[in-house]
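quick one
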Amino acid sequence: MTKYKAILVTGCAGFIGFSLCQNLLKNGYKVIGIDNLNNYYNVKLKRDRLKNLINKNFTFYRSDIKNLNKLDKIFKQYLPKYVVNLAAQAGVRYSIENPKAYLESNIDGFLNILNLSVKYKIKHLTYASSSSVYGANNDFPFSVDKVADHPLAMYAVTKRTNELMAHSYSNLYKLPTTGLRYFTVYGPWGRPDMALYKFARLISKNKTLPLFNSGKHVRDFTYIDDVVEITKRAIFKIPKKNKLSNSTSIVPWEIYNVCGSKPIKLKNFVNEIFKNLKKKAKIKNLELQAGDVIKTHGCNKKTIRKLKFVPKINYKKGIKYFINWYRSYYKI
Ligand SMILES: NC(=O)c1ccc[n+]([C@@H]2O[C@H](COP(=O)([O-])OP(=O)(O)OC[C@H]3O[C@@H](n4cnc5c(N)ncnc54)[C@H](O)[C@@H]3O)[C@@H](O)[C@H]2O)c1
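structure w/ nicotinamide-adenine-dinucleotide:
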């Protein structure tokens, strides 16, 4: 049964987008997916994810959110009530190498999404922000009420900018918007440029693991199923105008942390991967990398209170599920 008219999801061939679409389709929603299938990482993985979305309720467009004309046609044809913008140039490190790619997809592309959301009078725009907006903050746990004005890399600049752009549209056009600050998402069908995937690849090939900052980084790793559930609940929780308070704005604009609020030392995370792959640890400790945040630890009290969901999967279970998927995907 199709409960709502179409939900439009950009970045649908990406890790989070694919996982969200899979869940929405399973629950009877009609989904219009957009992705440009760029080659930031292996396109085969994106295509394989898409194969798993084939369904009478799923329509895919290979399109770029920077292409306003094509995007306009898609909005016009489907008149989505709910839009979820997950398409972005992701990754902190690559933003040091190629900042322009981030401005183009994350700022120009997002502006197109905002303008079309207003033009076609959607009910709610939900979009991906990131824990990296907390940057140089060291007031743990990070809370959405706290300042997020000290980004350490251009990726974070674009994500914080998205939140501010959304705020201005929520004000000017009364467009309800919700930004989700995702904290290091991991799990099956994950991103090959992220730690867990990279480590699994090296460890399974018996290679030495280069561990930046000697593995002393701390991350609030968040399992994909929890992320999908929170994202789905956020889509249907339309922000309203608020009375002005310290933590919110008067316009229909909302921000949530998406995290388990249980930070783990990277070293412990890595040991768990070795254990699951049944390999002996071979590690080369390295210095801290430029642009890296040393610790992330989010506060998820507001997310739990408003979206009524407590993240369920601890890192030991999550790594096990990922490694099971990894083994079956690569047939090892
Ligand atoms: N995975 C995480 O830990 C994490 C953490 C914080 C924020 N985020 C954000 O969540 C969103 C999804 O992340 P992900 O991990 O699934 O990344 P991903 O790279 O796997 O997915 C993004 C998808 O968007 C597509 N895309 C990129 N630019 C596009 C454009 N201009 N037009 C159309 N499609 C485009 C890519 O091809 C890709 O399939 C991103 O906005 C990312 O910045 C992710």
